[in-house]
Every structure is written in structure tokens, then in C-alpha cells.
Amino acid sequence: MEGYRRFLALLVSALLLGFVAVVCSLVWVFRYREGLGWDGGAAEFNWHPVLVVTGFVFIQGIAIIVYRLPWTWKCSKLLMKFIHAGLNTIAMILAIVSMVAVFEYHNARNIPNMYSLHSWIGLTAVIFYSLQLFLGFAVFLLPFAPVPLRAALMPIHVYSGLLIFVAVIASALMGITEKLLFSLPHWKRPPEESAKVQRPNGGAPEGVEAESTMTDCSNADRSDAGFNSDAARKRNFKLDEAGQRSTM
Ligand code: HEM
């Protein structure tokens, strides 16, 4: 009984967390980005995070645990197989649409495809997921495979499924981090602020110079000490360039 309660608490927390992740991705694209659209622009790219978080993370997560829910153990095995396969198919469709969105967006803007570790891990996960789905249908759902083959493939299906899910989570985290890095070059201290701090009476106050060099590298005050160094200029150029090449 104690174990069952803990299981329920963990299950509800995991579902809530997944749901919150989907809501956060929607709030993010509608409130802080350009919303959703299908025009080759940034709004089309935004389908990518929304659909992978919804389908590939949340729905796939539910599909993985349906056999472990005690109250489904009374249901027919065939019904559970349909639910498991159905949820995984929905996740797959959403993942494919999300891929189309990001590839179309890149092509429309002449941004190269597959240039990051995120994209390679992500695409690998999608390819293995399709294989897993196809084999799952062929072996466990259609009535042709002999029982010994099903029994032999079941542990492989379980472990490869979990491995793909881990790869999907890793890829999603890398994608979010990458997006953050693309956006961060614009997250700078406003020039007016820095001018006020650096020139209270014509010079930089003690201790401010070093910090400014760390945080603000592209404002109008580059003539000030600290911004003039070669290293600061190079770093500044790199940040600006990264900002311009951002896929978002
Ligand atoms: C690009 C897969 C989640 C952000 C890509 C590409 C693939 C991919 C295959 C390459 C597209 C191209 O080269 O044209 C996946 C998979 C994910 C996932 C399988 C989930 C498991 C996310 C998330 C974000 C994200 C949650 C957050 C915003 C990006 C960005 C790009 C991209 C910024 C363009 C830069 C690049 O190619 O690395 N993704 N992605 N991805 N994805 Fe994801």
C-alpha cells in the first residue's frame, strides 16, 4: 500500500511536470518569441520545440509507462497494445512535423542543415524511433510473428525504447541550451546604463571596468579602457557574429 501511494505520487508529479513543460514551451513561443505560423519564418521554427516537447517528450513518456499502470492490468492486452502503439504513432507524427518545420525554416533562410551535435543526436533518435515503431508494429501488433520471436525481441524492445527516450531528452536539452546561446549575445547591458556607471566624473569607478569588460562588449563605449584591448574586440566580434547567425 505504501509502495502504491509512492508510485501514484511519482506518477502524478511526472505527469504534472510533463504538462508544465508543454505549457512552458507554448508560453515561451507566444509570449517571448514570434508565436506559431507556417511561413518559413521564425514562427515556423517555433513549431519545432513545441511539437517535440509535446509529442516526443510528453506523449512518448506516457506511451512508455502505460503497461506499468496497475489499473490497466485488467484491460485486454490487445487494447493496451493499441494504446501504446497509438500514442507512439502520435508522438512520431508530431516529431516528423517538427523536423519539417526546422528544415523548411533553415532552407527558407539559407541556413545550413545538420551543423550541430544537437541536430545529429536528434535525427539519430528520430530514425531509431521510426525503426522501433515499425518493428513494434510488425512483431508485437500484427499476428504473424511466432511467440518465441516475440519473447526474444521483447527485452530488446524495452531497453532500446528507454535508450531512445534518453537520447530524445538529451537532444531536447541540447536544443534548449543551443537556443539560449543563440539568444544570449543580444542579452546585454543597455549602453545608457553602462555610460552612467562608467563616467560619473569622466572615468570608470574602481572595480567597474573589469566587470564591464566581462558583461558588455559591444556598446558605444569601446574607446574606454578595457574595451580597447584586442581580446575584447575579438570576443565582441564573435558574439555579434553568433547573434547574426542565430537560427532564430
Ligand atoms: C535543429 C532535432 C528538440 C532547438 C534541429 C535539427 C534536428 C533537430 C534534426 C536539424 C534541423 C536542420 O539542420 O535543418 C530535434 C529533436 C528534438 C529537438 C529530435 C527533441 C528530442 C529541440 C528543442 C529545441 C531545439 C526542445 C529548443 C528550442 C533547435 C535549434 C535548431 C534545431 C535552435 C537549429 C540549430 C541546429 O541545427 O542545431 N533539431 N530537436 N530542438 N533544434 Fe532541435
From TrEMBL:
SMART domains: B561. It is found in: Apical cell membrane. One of its GO terms (molecular function) is transmembrane ascorbate ferrireductase activity. InterPro entries: CYB561/CYBRD1-like, Cyt_b561/ferric_Rdtase_TM. It is a multi-pass membrane protein. Keywords: Cell membrane, Electron transport, Heme, Iron, Membrane, Metal-binding, Oxidoreductase, Translocase, Transmembrane, Transmembrane helix, Transport. The chain crosses the membrane at residues 7-30, 50-70, 82-103, 123-144, 156-176. It catalyses: monodehydro-L-ascorbate radical(out) + L-ascorbate(in) = monodehydro-L-ascorbate radical(in) + L-ascorbate(out); Fe(3+)(out) + L-ascorbate(in) = monodehydro-L-ascorbate radical(in) + Fe(2+)(out) + H(+); Cu(2+)(out) + L-ascorbate(in) = Cu(+)(out) + monodehydro-L-ascorbate radical(in) + H(+). CDD domains: Cyt_b561_CYBRD1. Its cofactor is heme b. The keyword 4Fe-4S does not apply. It holds the Pfam family Cytochrom_B561. Its main location: membrane. GO terms for cellular component: apical plasma membrane; lysosomal membrane. Residues 192-229 are annotated as: Disordered. Residues 13-214 form the Cytochrome b561 domain. Its EC number is 7.2.1.3. The keyword Lipid metabolism does not apply. Homodimer. This is Plasma membrane ascorbate-dependent reductase CYBRD1. It comes from Aythya fuligula (Tufted duck).
